[in-house]
Specification:
7 helices, single chain
Length: 474
């Protein structure tokens, strides 16, 4: 019986103690209707106490706070905003539409006068993280935006400190207009500016300044087509025609240089090889019948590469470097094909053509053929002997006396006038044939000299143009 009374008294004491503890605990503060999540950092202690202090701080700060007005004590006071940009990735560079797409991390920092507290009054709590939609945010936008969609604010939290400083980190995918100069393509370098500034607040109300001289590239992901040389920042103060007060802005200039290895392998090297192949049409024998066909084939191949290049380049006034090289090569191939046709006409003049003029015989068949080492078959180079004019055929002398021949007998065959006339005709025909053949050989030799001459000129031109373009790749 005594043991049962002890158990009853012990249970009653435990119940009274629990009721006493419940009466001593403070009431939990009711939510202010905002229904937002609050994260906190402060001095180590009981997590329940920190949660209650954070809720109390949140209720005290936003009891009479509005995010519609600038958080300054004096309306004439200028609010300073510090802007920092971190380049994360180059998503796309559209040269045809001149639009640059980037993935950025944008950090904005300012001071809110109405969001300050004493950390000692809240258990050493000095930093809280709250949704950015609850506080005032500067209306800083990208001026040279090239996107039809309206700007969407990132739903990220802001970091609020006890002294009123607010830090807002938000990722953003920006599409900005960029004037692309392709005059040196594929060895070009581009400068694309991103201008940030307030859309409605002038310089007397909101002043924006960059943090540091350049944007951060610490977390940049390398691009396969572009190499980033830097991203300097510059602050400007401009006055627009609509308003009298100045508007400050910050411009981050992205310096890019194209990686030209893929374009050199796919577009430039084939054109260089084709351009070096075109002058070889002059070295091709005229009897093969493929001299003109080679030139036309090379011209068609260059036209195909020119069309491929035109599809990727914007229709600008400045012609890219590789486009100039293509046009120069196509012009050279066109002239070489035309000259090949003229040389083919010289080669196939035939036996009825006029003799080679004296100046051409001396200048081209003499000095130029010796310099280019164009010799007759079986004639060693360096021992050239200018061709002599063939003797003109002599008609038979009529009425030649009987003493013209070696025979003095009246019955000798040499004294037969008809036989002598036929022999003279055969000799003159043979001389005419030899003269015609010699004229034909002279024209063919002249064609070979011209082929050798233009081969050296056009091959030198193609080699010099190719070297000038390839030097820029080094």
């Amino acid at each position: 019986m005594g043991h049962g009374n002890c158990l009853s008294l012990s249970f009653l004491g435990s119940s009274l103690g629990l009721l006493f503890l419940l009466l001593l605990l403070p009431e939990r503060p009711l939510d202010s209707g905002l229904g937002q999540t609050v994260l906190l950092t402060g001095s180590p202690g009981c997590s329940g106490a920190e949660g209650r202090l954070a809720h109390k701080l949140f209720r005290d700060l936003f009891a009479n706070y509005t995010s519609a007005l600038r958080p300054v004590a004096d309306t004439d006071q200028t609010l300073n905003v510090t802007l920092e940009v971190t380049l994360s990735q180059i998503i796309d560079m559209d040269e045809r539409n001149q639009v640059l797409t980037l993935y950025l991390w944008i950090r904005q920092e300012w001071t809110d006068t109405y969001l300050r507290w004493n950390p000692d009054a809240y258990g050493g709590l000095d930093v809280i993280h709250i949704p950015s939609s609850l506080v005032w945010r500067p209306d800083i936008v990208l001026y040279n935006k090239a996107d039809a969609q309206p700007p969407v604010s990132a739903s990220t939290n802001v970091v609020l400190r006890h002294d009123g400083s607010v830090r807002w980190d938000a990722p953003a995918i920006t599409r900005s207009s960029c004037r692309v100069d392709v005059s040196a393509f594929p060895f070009d370098a581009q400068r694309c500016g991103l201008t940030f500034g307030s859309w409605t607040h002038g310089g007397h109300q909101l002043d924006v300044r960059p943090r540091g001289a350049t944007a951060s590239l610490a977390d940049f992901v390398d691009n396969v087509e572009w190499r980033v040389l830097g991203m300097p920042a510059q602050r400007r103060v401009l006055t627009y025609g609509c308003c009298s007060e100045p508007y400050p802005d910050v411009t981050f200039t992205l310096l890019l240089r194209r990686r030209a290895a893929a374009y050199v392998c796919n577009l430039l090297l084939p054109c260089v090889l084709i351009s070096l192949l075109a002058p070889l049409a002059f070295h091709l024998p005229a009897d093969s019948g493929e001299k003109v066909s080679l030139g036309v084939t090379v011209l068609l191949a260059l036209t195909v590469f020119q069309l491929l290049l035109a599809e990727s380049m914007p229709p600008a006034e400045s012609v890219p470097l590789i486009g100039k090289y293509y046009m120069a090569t196509m012009t050279m191939v066109t002239f070489s094909t035309a000259l090949t046709i003229l040389i083919m006409n010289l080669h196939y003049c035939g036996s009825s053509a006029h003799p080679v003029p004296a100046w051409a015989r001396t200048l081209l068949l003499g000095h130029l053929a010796r310099g280019l080492c164009v010799q007759e078959r079986g004639e060693p180079c360096g021992q050239f002997r200018p061709p002599e004019s063939p003797p003109s055929p002599q008609p038979p002398e009529e009425g030649a006396g009987p003493l013209a021949g070696p025979c003095h007998e009246l019955q000798c065959l040499c004294h037969q006038e008809a036989l002598l006339h036929h022999v003279a005709t055969i000799a003159n025909t043979f001389r005419s044939y030899r003269a015609a053949q010699r004229r034909h050989e002279d024209w063919k030799r002249l064609a070979r000299v011209m082929d050798r001459f233009f081969l050296g000129i056009f091959f030198s031109m193609a080699l010099v143009m190719s070297l000038l373009v390839l030097v820029k790749a080094l």
